[in-house]
Amino acid sequence: MKQEPAENREEVPIHQGWNSPGFVRGEEVKMGEFLSELRVRIRETHNSLQAAEAAGDEFLADAHASELEDLHRIAVRNGVDISNVT
Fold this sequence. Notes:
This protein is mainly α. The protein contains two helices and two strands. It has a domain of 55 residues. It has a two-stranded antiparallel sheet with strand order 1-2. About 12% of the residues have low confidence.
């Protein structure tokens, strides 16, 4: 892949979290949908984890716990505050 010379490339600001708009090739991109979907998935996975634990299904509880850890990691990596999500 051939790279454009530096003087022809557009400057893309560093992303400052999913709560703020970002810019990709000069176009504003809203990240609200990503944020909403991530929070919904965290809530659903947390509820499923609690249900699996209540049913005594250790395998399913472990699977949900692992998925919850992955979702938390994604949130942290993208600057999403999930402290009030559950």
